[in-house]
Amino acid sequence: MDPIFHEWGGLLLRWAHVVTAIAWIGSSFYFMHLDASLRPIAEIPTGKGGAAWEVHGGGFYEVKKYLEAPAHLPDHLIWHKWQAYSTWLTGFFLLVWVYYAQSQLYLIDPDVRDLSPLAAAAIGLAGLALGWIVYDGLCRSPLAKNEVALAAVGFAFIVGMAWFFQQVFSGRGALLHTGALMATMMAGNVFFNIIPGQRKTIGELLAGRTPDPKWGKDAKTRSTHNNYLTLPVLFLMLSGHYPLTFSTPYAWAIVGLILVAGAVVRHFYNVRHAGKGDPWWTWGVAAACVWAAIWISMGSAPIGRERLGLAPLPETKVIAGAPRAPEQVANILLGRCSMCHAQEPVYLGIHIAPKGIRLDTPEMMARNREAVLTQAVLTRAMPPNNVTNMTREERRIVAEWIAHSK
What we know:
Elements: H1 3-37, E1 49-56, E2 59-66, H2 82-100, H3 103-106, H4 117-140, H5 147-168, H6 171-206, H7 213-238, H8 243-246, H9 251-273, H10 281-297, H11 302-308, H12 327-336, H13 362-367, H14 369-378, H15 392-405
Antiparallel strand pairs: 1-2
Helix pairs in contact: 1-2, 1-7, 1-9, 2-6, 4-5, 4-6, 5-6, 5-9, 6-7, 7-9, 9-10, 14-15
């Protein structure tokens, strides 16, 4: 694929994904806050709903909620569903565009498992489907009657899938797919449970019958699950830009710690908005989890391993017959790029290769040549501010090699 077309396509998809995610997350946080802020009013029976007064934009709002269906429906009803659908769809196409279309660069790590692009994509997609099937099955099982037990089993499943993805994908791809799996659960809740339940409720009202309150209760439960998963999902989607999160063999443990940290932070706000106090202990738990994640990540950086008293990182395996950069190109990239993009960076302040991209061996140079083309040839964004004085002639030589190596 043409690198300029691919770069712009990725930017536009990411832009759309971020915008729609803001809309979905914003509405999720708002309605959780609203539910917690409801107060009893005379026109809605006790325990059947409530109302909240709000001020925003110079005006006052009175918002009412009926836990069971109201006596009648208005002519105009706003549905909150497209934020979730569009977030998942743009995220899915972004996953395909970046991780499957460029699987050799972002998803496949021969040191982990030498997969074909088709096999890597198939494993990724099967993992997302499995995530929804298992999660939905748990929510429909007798286990769902015990919220704590359901949360514990769901937590173990997500961490287990993170471990599995790390056995087949690059660290970067593993964390991204774990986040995508959780996002698929969240979008599936909206598409397969929340919206169908609301449609059933409306259908019963229009038919003059009393809707089953179970539909609303189930929808609220799934919506709450989404609320607690939001912060961990956001962390995992950002993790691809920070190699310390995915370069350690224990990235799956970092996933578990972030799941706990994100959940307790949301718990703090949910309890606070409900007027039930301020459980400050949650911030202590969150801070401890983040610190533990940082400690684990130190094992992936040479300077961190030294501080922890760990042995040096093992050398990367060289696969027989793997493409190699020619000597002239290798010398250029070693002199201009490898002080940062190496297994053990030597540039001041850099302790791990940016974005996990290494250019310290001819094999790694060949494997990452598409990234070199975009960053060092087409845009000249690298080296940053041309700190190593890479010349026009050197960039031309690198460009010719990449053009003839496809």
